[in-house]
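Box 3.1 A note on notation
Throughout this textbook, protein chains are presented in two layers. The first layer is the amino acid sequence; the second is a token string describing backbone geometry. Keep the layers aligned when reading.
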Amino acid sequence: MATLPAVPAVDARAGRRRRYALGYAVLMYAVTLVYFAQAVSAGQFLSGGYDALSWHRYAATGTDVVLFFTLLFAGLLRWHGKGRLWPFLATLGLLVANQAQNAAGAARLVSLHIPLGVAMLTAAVVICLRVHQAGEPREPRDREAAS
């Protein structure tokens, strides 16, 4: 009589990684959408719609909050789910750049504020293009030992 092969136990970390990666992806898409809204409100302000400045300011605060939660999910993905490090570092970089962006905007340094905003939006889009890889397990340190 033929026996069925033993099914390996499901890795609990894989489930956590999937949940954290999904949360990270949703939040990263939200960050990118808010960055687009920031660009639109900045354009409206520069075109003479001065009411757009208050929306631009509110969205900047909202971006800080969403980025903080994105960093939290990236940290959980890395250390609790044993995932990759790049989502955490990418989000931390965006959070630091966002603080510099807020400072430049508050100081009315438009020559720094606008290019930094473009760079941050570009970085967020690139992260969103790779976000489907965020839930993969981290690579073994010794590649030869894995094969």
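The radius of gyration is 20 Å. The mean pLDDT is 88.
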